[in-house]
Model the fold of this input.
Amino acid sequence: MSASGRLLDLAVSELAGELAESPHPSLDDLAAYYRRSLPEADARAVQDHLLVCPECTALLLDLDELAAIGREEAIPASPGEEADAEWERLKQRLEPVSPAAPKPLPFRARPRRAPVWLQAAAAALLVSTGTLAYRVADLRRTVGELTAPQVNSEIVELASSPLRGEANPREVRLRQHVEQLLVFLRTPPNESFPAYQIVVARSAGGPPFSIGGAQPDSRGTFTLTLSRQWIGDGGDFDITVFGLADGRREVVTTYSLRLATNATL
Amino acid sequence: MSDIVERIVTTLSSASTGRRLAAAEEILAEIQEGAPAEGRFRRLFDLYSQPLCRFFARRGFSPEDCRDLTQEAFLGIYSGIGSFRREAGFETWMWKIATNAYRKRRRWRAAAKRAGPEVPLEETVEAAEAQAPSPSSEDGVLERERAGLLAEAIRGLPDQMRKCLMLRVYQDLKYREIAVLMGLSTETVKAHLFQARRRLQEELGDYFADALGGVEAS
Done:
C-alpha cells in the first residue's frame, strides 16, 4: 500500500473507530432500512453501523441483489434433466407421508382477519392458559411475530425438558373451532447441522408425520404445524428433532405431547 | 400428463405476468388460499431455483453447496408458507431464509476446517509482518499527525458526503454499492466523492492531493 493510500486509510479508520461500538441491527431492521420504512433516528443508527460493518453491508447488498432478481422478467428455468432432478430431490424431502395416513396440510387457507376485539380476546386467553406465566415475555414476542393472529389456531410451546410444575407429557386441549395447532419446539444449544428433520409419531403406533429440511429460527426454535384433520381424536405424541449431516442422522432432542379434543373430553 | 400440461400453460402465462416477484407472490397467495400446492410450488421452484443458485455461487460456494443451499432455501419457504405475511415481502422473506442457510453452511464448514492441520501461530505472525513494512518511528509520528489533520477535515464534510467517502475508503465499495447503502443514485454518489476530493484539496492543499487520488476510482 502506498504512503498516500495509507494516510487516507488511517484518517478514515480514525473516524470509523468512533462508530465501532454500535450493535448489529436485526435482519428485520436491515430490511426496513432497505425499504426506507424505519423511523429517522433508527435509520441513522443503522446507517452509521453500516459505515463500519462489512458483514451487515454484505447482508444489505444481498437483499438488494435478491430484490433485483425479483424485478427481472418472470422467465422460469429452462426445463431439463438437471432442473427435474433437483425438483425430484426436493420433493423427496417435502413431508414424506404414508398414503394410508391422513395427509397433514402444512399450510391452510388463510382465514379472514378477525375483528380486533376477538384478536384481543384470543391473546388474553393465550396469556392466561397453563403454566406459561414465567415465559409470558417470550410468548408475547413469539405471538407478535406470527402472521395475522389466527383465532382458529392453538399455540403450544414445548421445551425438551419439562419445567418444574409442568406436566410430562405436556397436555393441550383443542377447542372445537381450532383447525390447526402451532407447536414451537425450543431446543437446547447443540451442534449446528445444515439440515434437520422433525418426526411426529403417535405413542400408540401408526405412520409418523415427518418434515425434512426443517430449520430453526435465530433463537433455535422450530415451528411445527399440525392440522386438526391429522390430529384426529388426539392422543399421546412423541416428537423427535433429528440433525442431518453427511448422510448421518442424530437425535437432537425429543418432546412429548398429549392432545385432547372434543372426542376425548 | 395433466401436471405437465399445467406446467406448460402456467409457464407461458408466467412469461406475461411480468416480474418474477409478482409471479412468486401470486403463487404464494394461491397456495395460502388453499389451492393445490405441488404444481404451484414447482412453478416457484422453476422461477427462483437458478437465480438463487447463482446467488449462492457469487458468495463463493461450490456448485454442490449451491445446489444444497438452494434446496435448503426452498424447504424453508415450503415449511413457512402458512405463516408468510405478504406485507413483509417475499424477497425479504427469501433473503432471511437464504442468509440463514448460507450462514449455517459457513459455520458448519468452519467447524469442519477446525479439525484440519494446525499452523503454528509464530509462522502466521511472521508471514503477516513480512508483508507490512513499518515506517520508522519519526515517519510514524508525522504520518499520524497528517492522518489526524485529514480526519478532521473529513469530519467537517457534509453528512452524506462524508459517509460516501467513508464507505469508499473503509470498505472499498463500488459506486453502485454505496448508492444502495445510502439510498442514493449512483450519480449522486459520484458527485459526492468528486466534491469531497475537491473540498479536501481546497482545505488541505496539494500536500494531501496524493492521499485523495484513490477516492474517485471506479
Notes: The mean pLDDT of chain A is 75. Chain A is about 35% helix and 25% strand. The helical segments of chain A are 3-17, 27-34, 40-52, 54-71, 81-93, 116-128, 136-145, 228-231.
